[in-house]
Every structure is written in structure tokens, then in C-alpha cells.
Amino acid sequence: xxxxxxxxxxxxxxxxxxxxxxxxxxxxxxxxxxxxxxxxxxxxxxxxxxxxxxxxxxxxxxxxxxxxxxxxxxxxxxxxxxxxxxxxxxxxxxxxxxxxxxxxxxxxxxxxxxxxxxxxxxxxxxxxxxxxxxxxxxxxxxxxxxxxxxxxxxxxxxxxxxxxxxxxxxxxxxxxxxxxxxxxxxxxxxxxxxxxxxxxxxxxxxxxxxxxxxxxxxxxxxxxxxxxxxxxxxxxxxxxxxxxxxxxxxxxxxxxxxxxxxxxxxxxxxxxxxxxxxxxxxxxxxxxxxxxxxxxxxxxxxxxxxxxxxxxxxxxxxxxxxxxxxxxxxxxxxxxxxxxxxxxxxxxxxxxxxxxxxxxxxxxxxxxxxxxxxxxxxxxxxxxxxxxxxxxxxxxxxxxxxxxxxxxxxxxxxxxxxxxxxxxxxxxxxxxxxxxxxxxxxxxxxxxxxxxxxxxxxxxxxxxxxxxxxxxxxxxxxxxxxxxxxxxxxxxxxxxxxxxxxxxxxxxxxxxxxxxxxxxxxxxxxxxxxxxxxxxxxxxxxxxxxxxxxxxxxxxxxxxxxxxxxxxxxxxxxxxxxxxxxxxxxxxxxxxxxxxxxxxxxxxxxxxxxxxxxxxxxxxxxxxxxxxxxxxxxxxxxxxxxxxxxxxxxxxxxxxxxxxxxxxxxxxxxxxxxxxxxxxxxxxxxxxxxxxxxxxxxxxxxxxxxxxxxxxxxx
Length: 715
Fold this sequence. Notes:
Blueprint: H1 9-12, H2 23-66, H3 73-113, H4 116-131, H5 146-150, H6 155-163, H7 167-176, E1 186-192, H8 197-208, E2 215-221, H9 227-239, E3 243-247, H10 253-264, E4 269-272, E5 278-279, H11 283-293, E6 299-307, E7 313-317, H12 324-329, E8 338-340, H13 341-347, H14 358-366, E9 373-384, H15 398-414, E10 419-423, E11 431-435, E12 443-449, H16 453-466, E13 472-478, H17 484-496, E14 501-505, H18 512-521, E15 527-531, E16 535-537, H19 542-550, E17 555-563, E18 569-571, E19 574-576, E20 582-584, E21 604-605, E22 613-617, H20 618-624, H21 636-646, E23 650-661, H22 673-690
Parallel strand pairs: 1-2, 1-4, 2-3, 6-9, 12-13, 12-15, 13-14, 17-23
Antiparallel strand pairs: 4-8, 5-9, 6-7, 6-8, 10-11, 15-22, 16-23, 17-18, 17-22, 19-20, 21-23
Helix pairs in contact: 2-3, 8-9, 14-15, 16-17
């Protein structure tokens, strides 16, 4: 919902309106909004404090339950004292401090809601909205009630109260413009065809309202028949000489009309705006800041949300930084796309025949010429959602889906990466690239174990009876097994697969990194597949799918979708920063759930994947030095993946590679002081080495939470 109102209401009043609120009412309105903001901030801080207190109390209860053994009672008592003196005391003090402020603010606002001014104000804006008065200025689409300002019900509305750009922010942006070393011109391209007058006017007004003034709006009307389109465009062209309009004689569809708009452009960068969408007032200013920080940048994109037919904003899409494999699975860049104009011309402009996905096709071609891509983690674009738009229903515009498939197929040909594009009929707009295997080398599957023969037996049956990849060797690293039945099971597999199974004894104290590094020295394959003994492959071609990606020179670690026995997600990519170090995304989601904007069902770049099932080329593993043996138990796979990423490779999660994982059966839990101390030490190593507590994961938006695995909004 929109909480911003006109900054100068007096300029918006009809000249002879007798009941129009006066200057005093304007001051009261400003006070009301300030109080509303203060109240909401107090409410948010109260919620945070209560959450901190609840978390601390829960931790204390958990400690009592888990550590009742008298041997560590002193340790528990000390931890209890620390919690009581820090977290609980600070949280409770903050609650006591902000609660009176919140109560007073709510009381003031409630009284103002009943005032004549407030009622008159809301009536006036409702009338103004219906009549579309003062069309040359920005139109407030919604006037909030007090309850909406103070206690918003939906998370995105709460987020917007703290993060949306406000008129005061726009004023500050304009004040700092002289400090910018670079003032690039942005040519906003808007192809138009039979656009409703209201939507077209609001789209143009959103450009006029930009805090950054160095723009030109290049509009190409694609032979609209409705007379209001020409009238409205000519009106705005006369209003501001930065607005350029061309009227096409014949309808050529969106690619042709986009090229006509491009022909009007003189700016260094072009920005793409649909004829019925909206730019945030800070959109071009934020892009100018990126150009100043990275003068060589070629492509810039930002986050977006949708605006429904009632003018309500919803469905924010907080995107990752540049993620090439994610782009091949879906056009996650979408809006707001900003491109260096010379590169668009070099790439061949918009292409006829790709209507509906012409932006996707252009993006694929442009990013084949540059990797200088920047992401702005702010909502700068508001995508209209209505019955005829692709934002409204994913089933709309089947021709756009077909064009996207052609764009991807041609991209594979240009890149000399033969493969096929698989589509998902139930989810139009997402795609899976299955590459031809041109480097089909041996895969060395490394399975460490200590006893747990039944787990190994199930794992091996899936490997040899269900999997279809022909060139496998399995290195069963025995970390000191003593169970007779387990040893008999190992022996049976050696007899059954004498050419493909090797038993490597290595009876050292358990150190995951060390035993896997040791096993790797016995491997002969071009690809190493680290696999937990408690996994069970489900998809027959899972090894092929991993080799398809691992063979590609740009790819480092390849991970899989791992499920618990109840068909819920155990692993679907690792997010760095979750819980202070790293955590699994979408944990406990249903296996067939779409996830955050279909990330569970699409190939995606992640900073890390779990070594419970991880494939990497042998040369890449050797290049980064294998697993760090200082990390004996925890986070060794995350550290390996981060070193692979730092070496310039991209890590990837594959949703079509599916295994069951009976997590941590072999190792157990951190249930002794020694194990807990070791875990905390390894956590400190990761935080010191990779700054996991304060450095954002490039494949996870900083507006998303690090407290849970569900891609919720950050508090």
C-alpha cells in the first residue's frame, strides 16, 4: 500500500473549494504522518525486543533440557548468568522504554482519525482520484487510514514503512546531484500500444517524478487506433522537451516499436519501461550512483514488486546479484533493466520474432558480450498486475513462453554449449537446460563411513541398480568400522562390483575434511562426487545431470536437492549468513513446492552446496587445495565452495537431481561440551575468514532474513 502523499497539497487543491483544508490542516497532516511513522518504528522495535527476549529464554530452556548432566552444570549456570545479564536485560529494558511511546502515539493518532480535517482530507483525495484532477502532477492512488499506518497486517507493508523512498529522500537526492562526478543520461524506452489513458498517464508521470533529472523519455506508439493515445502523448511532449514521441504508421509489435523508441535515444544508457508500469522516484538516481561507483558497468538491474488493479503493492521480488545459471532458468532480471546503449546496438537491438520475451533475448545477447553487471537491491520498479499482463497470470501470453525457449536455444548455439531446453507445462516461464556431455570422464564417488552397513547398502543399491551413468568408481573409505554385519555388507559389495568398488581403510579420529581429502588421493576420475553414506539417489540420470554442469569450465561445485524421509527439503542450496555462518534454503518445504519465485524448481547459482552430495572437477578441487582440515566437522563444505567461488568459478544447485538424505545419522549431534566447543571454534573460523556475520551472500538479497530459511523479509 502507498503511504506517501503529495508533498505540497495546496498546489493540488481546486482553486474554489470552500472546504479544502488550510495551512493548519497541512501541519496537522504532517504531524499525523510523523506520529504514524514514530508509532510504527516503536512497534517494530518492540517486536524486535520481544523476539530477542523470547529467543534468549528459549535458548535458556533448551540448555536446561539438553545439559542436565552434572558434569557441565557449572557451564550451564555461567551461560544462564550471561543471558540474564545481557540479552534478557537489554531486551526487557527496551520493551519498557518503547511501550509508553507506542501507547501515546496510538492514542494521538486515534483521536486525529475522528477529526474533521482527517475526514475531509480523505474525502478530497477520494474525489480527486475518481475525477483524475490535476493530471499533470503525481497522483496518490490511495490514502491510508490510521490503522493502516500504525498496525499494517502484511510483512511487505511493514517493510515498506521502513524502506520506501519518501519526499524528503527525494529532496536530499536532488541536493546531492552536484556532488556526482558522472551525470549519465538515461534514455527511458517506452513502446506504447492501445494503452488505457489512466495507466499511460501514470507511467509517464512516474518518469517526470524522478529525483534524477538527466533523462529522456523515448516513446514509440505502435499505430494505436484509440485517439486518446496520440492526444495524451502530444500533450506530454509539449509539456516537457525531455519527452520524445514517434508515431509508427503500421503496427509492428513490441520488438519493432522498442527499436523505434531506441532510435530516439541519445543517452549513454537505455532503461526499459512498459507502457503501463511505474518507476519509483529514486529509480534513475540509484542507477546513476551505480555508474559513479562503477563507471565501466554495462548492465544494471534492480528489485521489483507488483501493483494490482486497486493500486496496492504486493509480491516484492528481491533478487540475487548476477547469477548466470539462474538467468538461464528464468528471466529473474526482468525489471528494471538498464543497458549501455552502445552494447545494445552492438548486440543487434531488439529482434522480431521474440515478441513477449524480446527483453530476455536482448539480455542473453548483451551478457554474452560483458560480465560487468550490477544489481541494486532496492524496489525501483512497480509492475502492473492485471488480467492481460504477464504479471497477472503466468498462463498469459503463451507466445512469450515460446519465444523464450527460442531465445535460450539460440543462446546455447552461440555459446557453443549444445543442449536442449526443457520446459515445465505446469509452470510457464521456467526452463531447465540439459547440456550434452562432451567430457564424459570417470566419476569417482567418495563415500566415507564407520559401520552403518545398512545405510551403505541402500546407498550402493541406488548407485548401481538405479543410476544410469556408465563410468563410475566408488571409493568406500572405512573410518575404523568394527560392526561385523557392516563389514560383511562391505565385503559383499566388493565381491559384486570388484572393478568399481574399492575399500580404503583409514582409521583416524573422525575429521570429515581429512578423510575425504585422503579418499580423493585414491580417486582416478576426472570428476569427484562426495556422497554421504546415508543418501539414496531417486532420479536415475542424476550423475549425468551433475556431469553436464561440472564439465563446463565456469562451473565449480554442483549440488542436488536432498529430501528427508517425509518428502520435505533438507538441502536446496546453502545461503551464507543464515544463523551467523550458513544454512540451507527452504528447509522443510514440500519437495514439490515452488519456493521463493520458483527457486526450488529451477537451476540456481548459490555460494555453497552441501558435501552430502557434491560434484566438482578434480582439477578445480586440487586448485583450491581440497577441504580445509582445520574444519574437522562443520562448515568444511561451505568453506570449500567459498574458496571455489573466490577462485572465479560458479557453484550451482540442480533441482532435477534428487536424493533422500537421512541427515547426520553417522555423526550424531553436538551433545557434549567437547563437541560444542569444537563447533563454536569452527564457527569462529568461518566468521573470521569469510565475515559471514556481516557480509551479504551475492546470491541472496540483503532485504531477506538471515533468521530463518524461508526467504522471508528481513526484520
